[in-house]
Amino acid sequence: MTPTPLFLLLLGLIGAQATVDLRTAAAMAAGLCKTRPTDLIFIVDSSRSVRPSEFEQVKVFLAKVIEGLDVGPNATRVGVVNYASRVKNEVSLKTHRTKAGLVKAVTKIEPLSTGTMTGLAIQFALNVAFSESEGARVKSPDISKVAIIVTDGRPQDSVKDIALRAREAGIEIFAIGVGRVDMSTLRQMASDPLDDHVDYVESYSVIEKLTKKFQEAFCACSNSATDVVFLIDGSKSVRPENFELVKKWINQIIDKLDVSETKAHVGLVQYSSSVRQEFPLGRYNNKKDLKDAVKKMAYMERGTMTGQALRYLLDNSFNPGQGARPGVTKVGIVFTDGRSQDYIGDAARKAKENGFKMYAVGVGNAVENELKEIASEPTGEHYFYTADFKAMTQIAKKLQINICQEEDPCECDSLVKFQKKVEDALQALTKKLESMSKRIALLENKIV
Fold first, then answer.
1. Phi and psi dihedrals of 386, rounded to 5?
2. Which of 71, 112, 286, 414 sits in a 20 to 30 Å window from 225, CA-based?
3. Phi then psi for 194, rounded to 5 degrees?
4. Mean pLDDT along residues 160-186
5. CA 172, CA 47: separation in Å to the nearest integer?
6. Against a cut of 0.90, is the pTM above it?
7. Is the Cβ–Cβ distance between 352 and 358 less than 8 Å?
8. pLDDT single digits (tens) 57-107
9. Which is nearest to 81 in space by CA: 152, 134, 144, 160?
């Protein structure tokens, strides 16, 4: 049957409505990363050692970090404190509720071009910028308080005591140093662990490379349910003092996971000549209990049966009877400091065939080929090596990001919502078309 003008007119009206629905769905995907609720204050050094062109680069960095945030009164609020010999509150937490407004305000900030009173700036942030009168929210476990300090020199006042007071008040401090900055000052200001909270760049021209780190630091992925099992080499070659460093390394990674009943679960297995489960997945659902349990892990010593440990991971650790959750991403993190005394090939291959995301971390005499055999593809992103146990903190930083960014869970969450919205719109359109087709057929029969 040839479509009548009436049918084509009505179809056009329905199509227009569908376009509106799809545009609404597309708008949902515009902000792909939902950041956890945070009161964030940038504390920016604009002393005379910071050239005007360099200060412009700092503002670009601020703007790019802001672009990655979920800005809003119930999400992330952002303020900017500018300092030199004096302190100026450029943007308060209550001033701008949109990214566009914030970025525009940042572009208008001018350098003060005098001395470097960093301690005074931190005190101002603590007493004024983070006050309720300036838009800060009441202290709550659900609201993060974060300060990012950017400086390029040695302060002319003391920072140690006031920074401690700020941290004790619940403010997480990141310290970024540029050029000839005094590194000891950065460490006095920053929160623990220092490796995660102190950053250095050679010049302002490369400060933008830190943008991704801070966007990821504030990213709260609501689709991040993960079962993570650590498989830890406790052989005699590790030695007791290094085993303590390994436990600190595990807890450094746990600090970056969103541990809860519905998000990340963590299990711990130690191996040497035999395999011992320290605790299964799901036994501890908060970071404090998890970290306490890790600290209590006793050193086994003896041999290095990595293949046996991998088989235990396959048969037990990721088994629902041991707390593993069906349909949840499975991540295995294998740590070893030497060559395995048994065959690892079959178990390593089967773990990856089962869909487990496998990370291999080697220290000292660990064998690179074995690490690559254990690691998931691409191996360059899933295996890590360092000669020194004391350098493991750097591996923890890299490995944590890889876990967090697995298939970009923030993006996936928004895209799932986007896909659902599109599917709902298409279903509604299909129903309208079916209904309208029937009505048009009746009308045409009457006309005939």
1. -145, 145
2. 71
3. -60, -35
4. 94
5. 24
6. no
7. yes
8. 999 999 989 988 888 898 899 999 999 999 999 999 999 888 899 999 999
9. 134
- Residue type, position 395, single letter: I
Find out whether 102 and 96 touch, Cβ atoms under 8 Å: yes
Contact 263, 226 (CB under 8 A): yes
Phi-psi region of 78 (alpha: psi -120 to 50; beta: other; left: phi over 0): beta
What is the rounded (10 degree) CA torsion for 266, 270, 275, 279? Answer: -40
At 323, the amino acid letter reads G
Torsion of CA 434, 437, 442, 448, to 10 degrees: -160
Strands 275-279 and 76-83: unpaired
- Give CA–CA dist 318/328, Å, rounded: 10
